[in-house]
Batch of 2 targets.
Target 1
Amino acid sequence: ISYGGSPRATIALDRCARAHAWLQGRDYVSPEDVQTIAHEALRHRILISYEAEAEGVNSDQIIDELIRLTPVA
């Protein structure tokens, strides 16, 4: 990764997850809301290194790995 998500990416992730929860008729955010919108909120905020790009790695794969590695209580 050349550049990861900034603090503004976290704000966007929060706002999008809240909106998704609201659209689902809930007044609370679940981990599934965050996981559902993570790609859309973060995809364009993660810059892939040249080496990773040459190996065929894309931002969606990185987000998938982050979701997989992040423990959810």
Target 2
Amino acid sequence: MTAFPAGAQSRIVTAQPPSADKETARYFIDPATENSPARDKIIQLLRKRVKYVFVIFNENESFDHEYGTFPGANGLYSNGQKPRDAAHTPGFVQSYTDPATGTRVSVRPFRLGPAQNATVLDSVDHSHKALARKLDVTGGVARMDGFAQAEFSGKSGPAKTKAQIARGREFANLVMSYLDCDTIPFFWRYANRFTLFDNIFATEDTPSTPNAIAMIAGQAGETQWVKHGPSGHNGAMTGTINGDSYSGTGAMQGVPVVNDPNPYWGSQFTPPNAAPEPTSPHENYGKHGDGPYNISTNLTFATVPLTAMGSGIRKTLSGDRHPEQNQADIRHDIPAIAASGHAPVAWRWYQNGYDHEPTDPPGVATHDHFVAHHEGPQYFGYLADNTIARTSLKGLGDFFHDVAHDALPAGGGIIYIRGGLGNIDGMKVPIQNPDFPAKLTPSDVKAIRDAKGGDDDHPSYADRQISEAMNARVINAIASNPKLWSQSAIVITYDESDGYYDHVPPRILSYGPDGLPLSRGVRVPLLVISPYARAHVVSHAEGDHNAVIETIEDIFGLRPLASLPDEKAALKAGDSPRFNKFGPPGFHQRHLGPRDINSPVTDSLLSAFDPKRLAGTAPILPGSYAMIPTDVVASLPHYGGQGCQRIGMTPEDVRQGINTRIPAGFNTLPATLPQYNHPAP
């Protein structure tokens, strides 16, 4: 894996193959023909042009699962410049032992499309322990060859009944599947027209919550672990959540966060005089077995919303109802941020279901679409328990209202957008083949639509085209407003991989108190859309969610989290025998915290921006170039299932004449429709 030095833009950005789309060809500027201005110059130009950064933060997709055959990207069959065979693709051929036959079964990547109703698949295992098995780190290097075996072992269960073995087989196959532009044509269209990043990873080798936290903090509690140890707090419980009443005392999960606990704020541990935060009616707030409750301890380290408070930090933190508890690990950060003299930067976190949505009854916020463990800011008391800061937390419908009514923060801001368990547009899963995996009954179709109506791309509950439609509506809302579009940069990215196969080994930067790899996780997609973006290119800049944070800091002039006194001290303390012992012999824990300072290990997203567009010597990309017609967005399946043809793209496997084989009797929904799992002999 190549780490490119900061500023080497011409080396880390390459052109995609020539486009059949005339409009894309019109705006394409070959990066090989451009000089690369100094990093500081790019930042200077961005600060003049970009006032709003929008982060559409989707759920649970690996890069190879969605873009593994995207032309010009480092994917399953090509390094982006030339074809690559299976022998030189880590983990391309995987195997598991089938106890029914006693043989090793080989699995390799295969394409799913409209004939397999590929807009809906089931979620694979993305627990922290399973992800470690999938990476299969040996000698400090991830071999990427444990995906199929981890799925089979985890899903077939200890008893290994015929039904369990059948389930394990289906998941061992499913984890190696991939999609293309026939299934997610909008996402591919954006990647074709703007800048696709193919070397961005999950910050943590974990499920969603730690990476939702990392999107604003660059970590999931590593500095809190260094300062206070890994154990969660004990606390008094009160109240009723989802029909369960709580009293007495109990233990919370500790740090770093490696599972999907719900936030402390809004849980049964929340003090009675705290600012009220919503709960999710579909999530578990109780125990898993004999362990602690499914609640995170209160998080107390620095975040982008904290540094964004700037010179107004003391005024904003005056709304904190429990400052002694909530500000325990930012006491030195606060005066450092205040002394910067930087004017406050507004921020918003819009998440489906947080408050009243258009699908709710009048005056009643059901929170039916809300996934509490995806709401990053709700884990931090100085934000969620703060009567001033928490006004930045809103629902998805609020975003569209605010754009339409010119109610976004005046003068610019940092805007995060997340979907949820349902969608607010009344869209239903498109069943493109009623005969797959067998002739679907009305109850089968109902089961699929009841389970998969979400809009954040999470395989557990979302449909991919409903999800890309939500993304398109967000982009259309911004791009249809000329003033807003001219001041915007939009990032589309994901929290983690869901555990789906990807072939690129992440750099192993840290280990947790359980001795498992902590950072980084599996590669995820990331796109940058802006009037100042490079068109029709792929950036190979290496990073994780810290790349998003660093770019935000560059644009708004915020102090890097890793440079703040409390975080800097913890980062230094982490590289010590006390913490190095959790890694292999000789390993140094140099990254137990944020890494949002540019280095060969972690880059920003600056390579997405075209120097000529920023300088005004080349035309900016018009809003119309980003927009997809409203009727097309609303019509499912998108482009009638002919996405590749309609957007003029040829996936790499098709270009090379590679025909993959779908396993006989394969079921894409082994958990949703288990009755169609291929039976064991």
